[in-house]
Amino acid sequence: MTAHGPSPKGTATQGSILNPPPSAQSARFPPDFGQRVLLTVDTEEEFDWNAPFQRAGYGLEHTRELARFQEFCEEIGAKPVYLVDWPITEASGAIEVIGEAVSRGAAELGMQLHSWVNPPFDEDLN
Q1: What integer pLDDT is reported at residue 1 of this predicted model?
Q2: What is the reported pLDDT for 74?
């Protein structure tokens, strides 16, 4: 079975997370490749994980620290990938800091979806 379903009869199973390649087929990088790190930052609203989910009443106080965090990342040569959700896209301070860093090539942008705060609100609040 591949990630997309069963393999056609007689073909090799490639790309399946269930069948990793043998160690002899592992990727090899040249000695000067160096180390690589992927830094993802869940950039989301503040909420109480122990309370029922709500579409309103969340916090965004922490976004005031994004500029300081971005500055730290740049000082150590890191290029964070901010995984934002809807409330962050509506927070002017976050938009300014992350947008400016992305436009300079000092950060990347991704998204995450919290169904309780990301429109459209077609799903049950859960």
Answers
A1: 40
A2: 97
| Sheet hosting strand 81-84, strand order edge to edge | 40-43, 81-84, 108-111
Both tokens of 2, joined, read: 């591949």
Q: 100: which 2 tokens?
A: 């400016």
> Contact at 8 Å (CB) between 64 and 93?
yes
**CB distance 29 to 36 below 8 Å:** no
9-18, 37-46, 77-86, 114-123 — which is least confidently predicted?
Answer: 9-18
Q: Output the 3-class SS for the chain.
A: CECCECCCCCCCCCCCCCCCCCHHHCCCCCHHHCCCCCCEEEECCECCCCCCCCCCCCECHHHHHHHHHHHHHHHCCCCCEEEECHHHHCCHHHHHHHHHHHHCCCCEEEECCCCCCCCCCCCCCC
The whole-model pTM stands at 0.71
Neighbours of 99 (CB within 10 A): 13
Rounded to an integer, what distance in angstroms lies between the CA atom of residue 53 and that of residue 47? 8
